[in-house]
Prior knowledge:
single chain, alpha+beta, 6-stranded mixed beta sheet, two-stranded antiparallel sheet, 10 helices, 12 strands, globular
Amino acid sequence: MRNNQGNYENQRELVKKVKNKKKKRLRRLIIIELIVILVLIPVIYLYFQLGRIPRQELNLDNIQFNNINLKELDGYRNIAVFGVDSRANDLKKNTRSDSIMIVSINKKTKDVKISSIYRDTYVYIEGHGYTKINHAYAYGGPELAINTINKNFDLNVTDFVTVNFSAVTNVVDLLGGITLDIQEDELKHVNNYTRDVAKINGTDYKYLKKAGKQTVDGTQATAYCRVRYTAGGDFTRAERQRTVMDQIFKKAKKANPFTLAKVANKMIPQVYTSLSNTEMLSLGKDIFSYDIKDQTGFPFDKTAKKIGGVSYVLADTLSSNVSKLHEFLFDQKDYEPSKTVKGYSSDIAGR
């Protein structure tokens, strides 16, 4: 009798343990499902929000490539990023691109390199002759701008992202500010532009009290991007823009999915691109793997010169600068420019 009672109690204890294990397993599954849902909510939200972004599927017939070995560039994703300053938020054309950057992503290593193209760079624009490269976007939108980049620099760009400068203000604020090292000769100009940026965006503002490394808000960061009245003029301004982009990228890598979803939601009305939702999500999911390895301005060797009373930036020479650009972006040693680039180079040298 005692043995039967003992066996019964053992069985009850065993059943109790099994039930407890099932409860714990169920609890774990619920927790895992909740985590998955919490992660998926911003992703799904972001996917549908991305559908609101104005897009332009580029006509590749209007985007030309020089006679170069495109296979050598297959390992890189090259995207043109245009920054425009349009109060009317006109992102498609009829506005000059104040900022032009080539963002090159090594598909294998995820290393990122950025090259600014100085906006006054003297290039050949199809149908318009030789003039400043930032005119291309105003003349024919992203298609003509990309065509100009490819033809003058032997590149294979087929995608673009255009952003209104006011988006920088919103993004930096949502990320909680970024760190910049403000120099003494920049401080006065940053504060002056801070007032102007706030007036354009209809926001409050505060002046920086001193130079040095510090956290700045979105209005201050945008003002920093605009400064060009220091040594180096537009060359150092392009460098500041790359610095801000780098700091935004670093801050975004540390942000949680909900913050990134907020950033995307705020930026969407101020972005115009050729990238699909899937492509943007694909690029976005790799953000934590990307590493900005280096950045520079183009042309490397240059001369500021007036032609017909207008100031331009002329490459010394275009051919040699294109060779250096390919070495910088793609590690191509002793790159031999195409006949097209050599022809442009010869024309520019004669100016």
